[in-house]
Amino acid sequence: MKSLSTQEKSWIMYDWANSAYSMTITSTILPIYFKMVASNGNMSSSDSTALWGYTISLSTLVVSLLAPVLGTIADYKGFKKKFFTTFFSIGVISTIALALAPSDNPYLLLILYGFCVLGFSGGNIFYDAFLVDVTTNDRMDKVSSYGFAMGYIGSTIPFIGCMAIVLLTQQSLLPISLTLACKLTFLITAIWWGLFTFPLLKNVKQNYYIEQEPHAISNAFKRLGHTFKDIRNYKPIFIFLIAYFFYIDGVDTIIGMSTSYGTDLGISMSALLIILLLTQFVAFPFTILYGKLAKKWGTKKLLYVGVITYICICCYGYFIKDVLDFWILAMAVGSAQGGIQAISRSYFAKLVPKEKSNEFFGFYNIFGKFAAIMGPFLVAVVTQLTGRTNNGIISLIFLFIIGFITLLFVPNVDSTTLKPEHISNLDT
């Protein structure tokens, strides 16, 4: 971290900040808490898993529809940080609302979680696009990887405190109910997320932009139309987005529904929390390793490694039966999830024109978010139809295989931003 600039460090700190949300709200305590509330309301395990998947799908659909429009507007000078701040605030406020909501209404929890997803995912559109503002092409793999890596470590600090509150309550060592303990973890997460976002708000600036002009919104829609044409003209971008659509779908689905899967297998809350905590520690060095190897071997080869790892994870996930199997599965996920996300982000950032980064990252996110609709929906439908979560997990293998095959046609890139006239000189 010593070799990083102030802007790079400040940008990385947002991964440190919002990963607490990813750990507590997306992956662990909220899904388990929702399962508990749903069970108390006599909702079946398969139905609650399905509703969780449908909620993720619906909320990401909203973000997906907004992403390209807001991204186009955000390329105007001064708009990127305003949009980032708005969505970040929605996420933090909704997380606080989870702590204040009554614990006897699973449907209200789903609504609030939908707003959390909206704020978190919307903020990430502009956060990712800031990557072109804070660093240079030859440092993007490193900075992006450090962001995800620090996110994994940063998420563990508040999570350890949250986990201690839940486990001590379960052991009757804290004189509070398990419901109150879970609500306290939501409040802690919101405070952490808000506090460590301030370095980005203070130090990161929009260095690449389009000057403001009259009728900015209507002109933004016109520019959005041109962006569609640009994506068709920039073949590497278009091919990569198709590959990304499929493989990141599987990645996000496994992350978002892992605790529901573990709960359906009969794994206790305490075991799930410990497993997922150690997954973060595994992810930290592997994410940095992905960044270093990408510089040595090339970004595309590391993407292959990540996708193949997830194909193996899906196959193994179909056969798991006990806690040990889930341990092995979680460690395998930890070895790949941060790396494939970081390398995908930096690879795309190298491809796009910097002054139009929000537009193109709007499409990057719309492909990612629409993919996140399909994956949970696929798992939800297959799980409901068969009554077995294992079948839902194995169905994801098709997404990774399609993504891998499409990735074969994506060109190798160096640190130079691609232009249409360069495409014919690239090797696939």
UniProtKB/TrEMBL annotation:
Cellular component, GO, one term: plasma membrane
UniProt entry keywords in alphabetical sequence: Membrane, Transmembrane, Transmembrane helix, Transport
Classification via InterPro entries: Atg22-like (IPR024671), ATG22/LtaA_families (IPR050495), MFS_dom (IPR020846), MFS_trans_sf (IPR036259)
GO terms, molecular function: transmembrane transporter activity
SUPFAM superfamilies: MFS general substrate transporter (SSF103473)
Chain ranges of the Major facilitator superfamily (MFS) profile domain: 236-428
Pfam families referenced in this protein's UniProt entry, alphabetically: ATG22 (PF11700)
Annotated transmembrane regions: 12-34, 54-76, 83-101, 107-127, 148-168, 174-196, 237-255, 267-290, 302-320, 326-348, 360-381, 393-410
Membrane topology designation: Multi-pass membrane protein
Protein location: Cell membrane
Chief location bin: membrane
Official protein name in the record: MFS transporter
Natural source organism: Zhenhengia yiwuensis
